[in-house]
Inverse folding.
């Protein structure tokens, strides 16, 4: 007689257990799936962008720190120029787009000019960094 009411409760416990087990398995499977998808994703274009962002940030930081001799800023300018050659390989889907190629060459031209006559003081470095930043923005407005 008194076993009757306890029966549905034991079912409820079992369902709760199965539900929680399902939840755990589900979240583990989700994490594994997301990791697998991320591992397959090509990180090259992000890497190119983030490294460029870092070097541009370094130029701005050096202005703030008043370290603006050629030896201070040339390494960052050279790195940016080298990586500007990687814009097309980094975005193979966009590389054939004429406007994309134009933005990429604009950035290279800006950096070539900066390397040909490097800025001599912090005001010059600030202007150069701003000019490079404009070439980033130009492409981002059209393609990001
Ligand atoms: C010729 C085109 C082009 C130029 C020049 C360019 N970018 Fe980009 N950038 C892109 C595109 C396209 C994306 C969007 C990538 C995406 O979301 O798949 C992007 C995205 C980014 C991102 C976000 C990356 C991510 O995927 O989360 C950063 C940061 C960035 N760019 C920094 C820069 C900086 C700094 C410069 C200049 C020094 C620059 N970019 C110049 C095309 C360009």
């Amino acid at each position: 007689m008194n076993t009757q009411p306890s029966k549905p409760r034991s079912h409820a416990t079992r369902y709760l257990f199965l539900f929680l087990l399902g939840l755990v398995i589900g979240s583990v499977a989700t994490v594994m799936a997301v990791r697998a998808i991320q591992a397959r994703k090509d990180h090259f274009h992000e890497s190119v962008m983030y490294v460029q962002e870092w070097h541009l940030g370094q130029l701005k930081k050096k202005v703030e720190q008043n370290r603006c001799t050629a030896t201070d800023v040339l390494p960052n300018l050279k790195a940016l120029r080298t990586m500007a050659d990687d814009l097309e390989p980094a975005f193979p889907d966009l590389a054939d787009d004429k406007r994309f190629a134009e933005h990429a060459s604009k950035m290279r031209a800006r950096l070539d000019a900066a390397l040909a006559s490097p800025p001599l003081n912090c005001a010059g470095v600030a202007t150069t960094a701003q000019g490079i930043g404009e070439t980033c923005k130009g492409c981002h407005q059209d393609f990001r």
Residues 45-46, 49-50, 52-53, 56, 80, 87, 91, 100, 103-104, 107, 132, 135-136, 139-140, 143-144 surround heme C (CB under 6 Å). The two ends are 71 Å apart (CA to CA). The chain has a mean pLDDT of 93. The CA atoms of residues 64 and 122 lie 8 Å apart.
